[in-house]
Amino acid sequence: MDPIEVSGRVTLSSSRPDYLVPTVGRIVHYLPPTRTKPLAAIITDVEEDDFVNLTVFLADGTTKPAKNVCYTEQLTEFCWTWPKRT
């Protein structure tokens, strides 16, 4: 299984008090370049506070790894974000 390629890194500061620290097993959203809606993903490793490895759940039910994925507050291609609380 080929990993999802991640181009470029955007580091965000995690020193803000409202920032949730990523940990293994947390469910997040990931936006691949071919979609306008995010896919569900699980954090499988934390490289740095803003960079993680993910298992991404594709729309057909299969999974794909994504490595060195950066955090972003706004949904952005190749990045992960926390799901919105409703």
Biggest beta sheet summary: 5 strands, mixed, barrel
Helix content: under 10%
C-alpha end-to-end distance? 34 Å
Radius of gyration: 12 Å
Number of helices: 0
Arithmetic mean pLDDT = 84
Strand order of the biggest β-sheet: 1-2-3-4-5
Shape assignment: globular
Supply the key terms.
86 residues, mainly beta, 5-stranded mixed barrel, globular
How would you describe this protein?
- With 86 residues, the protein is mainly beta.
- It has a domain at 27-81.
- It has no helices and 5 strands.
- The protein has a 5-stranded mixed β-barrel with strand order 1-2-3-4-5.
What is the fold's blueprint, element by element?
Elements: E1 27-30, E2 39-48, E3 51-57, E4 63-71, E5 79-81
Parallel strand pairs: 4-5
Antiparallel strand pairs: 1-2, 1-5, 2-3, 3-4
